[in-house]
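Bench notes, afternoon.
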Amino acid sequence: MASTRKNRALYIDEQALSALALAKAGLLAPVDRLMTQQDVKTFKEMQHIGSQTFPFPFLLSPSGKRNTQVLETAQKEEILDLFVKRHYVGWIKVEEIFPIDKKERLRQIYGTDSLSHPGISATAERIGPYCIAGEYEIDLSTVQGNIDMIERAKIEHDAQHVSAIMLAANPLHRGHERLIRQSLEKSDLLILFLLKPYQEGILDYEIRYKTLHYFVTNYLPKNRVLIVPFETNYLFAGYNEVILDAIVAKNYGCDRLIIGKNHAGIGLFYDHNQDNSILNTLKGVDIEIETVSDFVYCNSCKTLVSTRTCPHGQHHHISYHADSILELMQAGLLPPAVLIRKDISALILSHLFPNRFKNIGKLYYDILPNSGILESHNEQDFYIGLMNLYQTTSLT
């Protein structure tokens, strides 16, 4: 997409581009446009759009001195080009410019405006003093490929029941595996939306995709699981995340969303003799939402179990805390196979510590059993062999 006009420009970031593309492609329906000041007023009174839940007004308020100057002088029906860095990504036709209450916007997204809350500072910096509303066109390359991929898979498998799981797989552990398998039992097609934040953590998207793809390819029925990149943006940062997950999954063509009880934003509480959550406030979002209990390894049951079905207490349970597993791997340690599959550990450690060993071939043949035939081995092979050696029990 290239600009052919001599228009003034607004500079937005990748998160704004992602949000605008989701709305333009129909993935945030009932939202299909940027809201005017009157739209915002109506939303506050009704707390929904039409007959359907949406957590907050859909607004564009780009920050920066240059953007502020453009918005302060923009005329109605003026065409403004949209750029991400130096790349033209679309245009917007000015319908209305109006001021925004930054603290109110933060409360709408996060439930608080306290800068001590994780993520709020970064979001606050990207909210400018003015909102712009109007018809727009935007580069849909970040979402259109996903839409087409899911539609092809549904047609190919004549899928009547399509389930969705939003996961980070950071890292992919045995609890994730059990959740995926259990979900697949009730689905013709399972969509794994792999979260792709704009600020990467220790494990970037590429290695998380590689491990998830490896598991799906080698340990699940062929072609019944689809991995779809999902570029999360600031809209999904707050306590309304689960509502937006449900809306996006539905609009991608899924009829069921599967989430854990510790999913961000679910907000479980007990009222009128039953469990309730933010999900009870959903209206008009035609998708089944299934919450599943945490999976743990029970050292009495000797297997992976649900906390709802295991009769033994927490002192018998090994929990799948992704942060703690990742901390072990950051230290260069192989997590026990009961926590994470050994070949997945090998993929991740090889990524975190490339060229860790001076002579991997000699080390491999010195301490691991082998066929006696000289073969080429890499660090991934070594980690797998080392894990097998850890599991030798005759001397332990």
